[in-house]
Amino acid sequence: MTRIYGSRVALDDVHLELLPGELTFLVGPSGAGKTTLLKLINRELRPTSGRLWVAGLAAHTLKASRVAELRRRVGVVFQDYKLLPRLTALENVAFGLQAGDLRVSDEEARDRSQDALDAVGLGDRGDAFPHQLSGGQQQRVAVARAVVAQPPLLIADEPTGNLDQETAWEMMDLFEDIAAWGTSVLVATHNVAIVTRLQRRVLTLVHGRLVRDQPAGRTGRMAWLASS
Amino acid sequence: MAGVVVRGRFPRRRIVQAVVTNLVRHLFGGAARSWARNLGSTAPALGSMTLLLLMSGLVGLTGFALHNLQQVETGQASLLHVYLRDDATDPDVIMLSQRLQNDARVAGLTYVNKAQALERAQRIPGLPQLADASESNPFPASLDVQVKTIDDMAAIDALVRDDVAVDPVYPTSYDKGAYQRIQAVLLGTAVAGFAFLGLLGFIAVTVTANSIKAAIHARRDEITIMQLVGAPRWMVRGPFVVEGAITGAAAGLVAGLITFGLTFAAITAAAGAFMRFAPGVTVTVAALAAAIVLLVGLGLGSGSSLISLRRHMET
Prior knowledge:
The structure holds two protein chains of two kinds.
Chain A: E1 3-5, E2 8-11, E3 23-27, H1 34-41, E4 53-54, E5 57-58, H2 67-71, E6 74-77, H3 89-100, H4 106-119, H5 135-147, E7 153-157, H6 165-180, E8 184-188, H7 192-198, E9 201-206, E10 209-214
Helix pairs in contact in A: 3-4, 3-5, 4-5, 5-6
Chain B: H1 11-37, H2 39-77, E1 79-83, H3 90-101, E2 106-112, H4 114-121, H5 127-133, E3 142-147, H6 153-160, H7 176-218, H8 220-228, H9 233-269, H10 271-277, H11 283-312
Antiparallel strand pairs in B: 1-3, 2-3
Helix pairs in contact in B: 1-9, 2-7, 2-9, 2-11, 7-9, 7-11, 9-10, 9-11
């Protein structure tokens, strides 16, 4: 697929497929098109040309009225967490669940949100408000909110950007666990140490082109570093 | 416990219950909380809309009274007196009567003889002295023609003016200038009224749309999260429409109550005079006007929100 902003080509004829249970890193210098790719997957943008299928839905032709349906199949994690400050951790997770699916009762939302918080290691902090949590804990709540509806795909845009190295590693362990449950996880990051050490699949974008698709288990050169 | 069947709750009912609970919470509860929280920023919209709805209500009632007055005046103005010559023969008068009765524009016809004309004149202030000053009866017999619409007055006047039975000096009571003045005043009043209401509506919509814009800005994080977790579009926008509707309803309620209160006070204070100057405006009509003001407020608030959402909320 290709995405063009005015005269600038943000993504240039990118071909890729994400598989269930696969943790994939998306790397590249600033302005390489990482965020554009994530926004296309979440249908915040539409490709200028090409086709994009997300969990069985044709995002490239999807009408605005059906975008919500696609987004229920994609969990999203942001660098700045995007938690609602006046809701507790448990309520933030439950809000994500019930706003996406009205059929979820309060009781069910509470149970599933608690399970999600347990899974991210914050089962005992459900009553805490975001300002009472550390950055890493807030990001964990955001991950819990993203996965509580069990979407087949999780995308994360620089999820460790505001975290120290130790917390970033904990976050990566969490993403590995989520991938192990069968979810496709795509993480856009600048963190070279994590990418090289984990030896997962790495997609390298430079100037909007997918210059390398390195399979898991290999240690490749960070070609994009030369361009950044 | 053997043999006892324990019935579980019907799952569909639980789903319906959950959907209704979530709908009420997100659409109405969320909107009400947000409205109360943002009351400070909503206050200008609430105040201006209340004022505008109140003025609309009063203008509406005034328009209704004017319409009724117009009906009364039109009924009187559409009566054309066709004055007959003193020496008009019966066959000429009968022929003229038949011509008028066969005309589709004529609603009714009454013959008034000289004695009846004198009797009528003596009831009009100033005319009895004139009648007494003359030894003979100076008032002519006439055919009183009730015309269906006031616009046909000129045509009926032209039809009878040169008839042999009609007085050539003072043929009819038709006064072209008077009718044109009445119609010009009524048209001017209606145009001014509609223009005023249009201006009020525009101001109300703009002010409310701006307050909703502020509410959208204040809740942009919540909106972003709702959109990203796959909340349907109507669910993201719904609370803002409800919030606008609450503002409109609150303004409409206050304006409606004041409209009703003022009208009720005027009716009870001087019923006779009020009925003469504002015919048809009763307590029931005032209550109806208050209800309409409330509904207009509701519609105006929701509509303004929708306009604001279209402009300021991204999908």
